[in-house]
Amino acid sequence: MLDARRRLNPPSALPRPPVTTRERTQIEAFLVLRRNPLELWGPAAYKRDILHGRFLGREQVMLNDPDAIRHVLVANHENYGRNIGTRRVLQPVLGNGLVLAEGAAWRHQRRTVAPALAPRTMPVLARHVVLATEEKEAELARAAGGRPVELLPELQHLALTIAGRSMFSLEMEEFGAGLRALLMRYARRFAQPGFLDLLLPASVRSPLDIGRAAFRAEWLRLIDRMIDARERQAERAPEGRPRDLFDLLSAARDPETGAGFNRAQLRDEVATLILAGHETTAATLFWACYAAARLPEHQERIAEEAAAADLSAGNAAAALKRLPFTRAHVDETLRLYPPAFLIVREALGPDTIGGRRIAPGTVVSVSPWVVHRHRRRWRNPDGFDPSRFLPGAPPPDRYAYIPFGTGPRVCVGAQFALTEATLVLARLLRAFRLEPFGSGAVLPRGFVTTQPDRPVRFLLTRRNH
Asked: Can you tell me the distance from the alpha carbon of 350 to that of 362, in angstroms, rounded to the nearest whole number?
């Protein structure tokens, strides 16, 4: 095994959006929120533990202190629900699936989904990851041929294929293009909150909600087609085949009522797991590849590590322990480019945080983007330094590193996402040398997930290993 402790050159800072040094007006802040939420926060956000303010007439509290984050997301999480802006944006796509469900419905869904993504299932899931990545490697080799490749769509396609196969035993060729096209249309038109989205009560539709409702009807028709295809496939499948997540969802019964998921609930779960299972991982892989292309020494170390490991489908899960630097590179990518860059909650009842009283209706936010770059929490916070996560390094504070959230609502697929990102990155950098194509910095933009602000192309050169 390669020496995971080998020192690299001093960590480099990758491009980031500008940080304003002046106080914005309410209108300016709203326009920034629409353009790029990652530009919202000034220098004080990266230095102070708790920030208080008002926005559009609502009391706002932003938490960077690990104890305060633990209080809201863990110790007293039942007092903090999703705010109306988050619901308006996500509900047309996710419905009342696992991400947005509350109370007993959420507990039932969580109990059903969690076993299918538990650590013991990783060997089976890792096999799906490697087989799909082998196919993508061959496609990229044909597509490159000395020509630049826009990598993000390729990674989105790969992650979607992995999600469909691993969770629902479903090939995505029939549905993938339509699903991505619908999501892109939604992202362009409806994924950024409008002024009235934040002001109107939940019982009143905003103008954007009308378009979102039309989108949802079209979206559910596509999800219905996917479920129908999966059910036809199950009818032809031999007895004794391995059960996948769709089987678990279909067979699940609430332990108190005995009720299973009805068709509407099943649609929301499938939509949530397909979307959450590929969009965030594709974003992570893009930034991991971008960082590797900008930092060739890191890239070569990952390629060496991958070349020394057996990354075949049958051995992929066991090979993970032979990829410590690759995994650390992924962890550092998640620190600097967390896909879920903002967690927003609304206080349902009174509370006290950091000695300050919190009134019902107060909007409480935690931004992994800010916490992960906070000057009090991290040494050289803007530097890309995987050594922070190598074996033997002191672990970060549990509530200062939260790429998958934390507490009862931590992402149920976190282990799968880390397994997938590590294996895909190792396979791709073992197969290809990546070089940025074109000039100009690529800036992250908060656009549902943390995305590049423009299409980004890479030159891919086949390696001989």
From this structure: 9
The phi-psi region of residue 405 (left if phi > 0; otherwise alpha if psi is between -120 and 50; otherwise beta) is left
Could you list the beta-strand ranges (E) of 300-394.
Answer: 343-347, 351-353, 356-358, 363-366, 383-384
Beta-bridge mates of residue 54: 59
C-alpha span between 123 and 316 (Å, rounded): 7
Q: What is the pLDDT of residues 232-278, one digit of tens each?
A: 888 887 776 667 888 888 888 877 777 788 899 999 999 999 998 89
Residues paired with 459 in a beta bridge:
435
Domains and CATH numbers, the chain: 12-462 (1.10.630.10)
Say whether 347 sits in a helix, a strand or coil: strand
Rounded to an integer, what distance in angstroms lies between the CA atom of residue 341 and that of residue 236? 42
Q: DSSP letters along 141-168, please?
A: HHHHTTS-EEHHHHHHHHHHHHHHHHHH
Q: d(Cα 161, Cα 171) in Å, to the nearest integer? A: 7
Q: Which of 14-18, 166-170, 337-341 has the lowest mean pLDDT?
A: 14-18
DSSP secondary structure, 84-135, as one string? HHHHHHHHHHHTTSTTT--HHHHHHHHHHHGGGGSGGGHHHHHHHHHHHHHH
Q: How many CB atoms lie within 10 A of CB 173?
A: 10
Asked if 426 and 323 count as a contact pair (C-beta separation under 8 A), the reply is: yes
Residues constituting the chain? 465
CA atoms of 422 and 321, how far apart (whole Å): 11
pLDDT of residue 59: 94
- How far is residue 183's CA from residue 68's CA, in Å, rounded to a whole number? 35
Above 50 in pLDDT, residue 1?
no
Residue 351 corresponds to which amino acid?
A: D
Provide the token pair at 271. Answer: 């939509």
Which whole number is the average pLDDT over 141-147? 82
Q: Please calculate the CA angle 301-304-310 and round it to the nearest 5 degrees.
A: 135
CA angle in degrees (0–180, nearest 5) for 458-460-464: 155
Q: How many helices (H) and strands (E) does the chain have?
A: 16, 14
Per the CB < 8 A criterion, the answer to whether 21 and 42 are in contact is: yes
Question: Cβ distance 299 to 4 under 8 Å?
Answer: no
Residue 426: which of 309, 343, 338 has the closest Cα? 309
CB 289 within 8 A of CB 268: no
- DSSP β-bridge partners for residue 462: 432
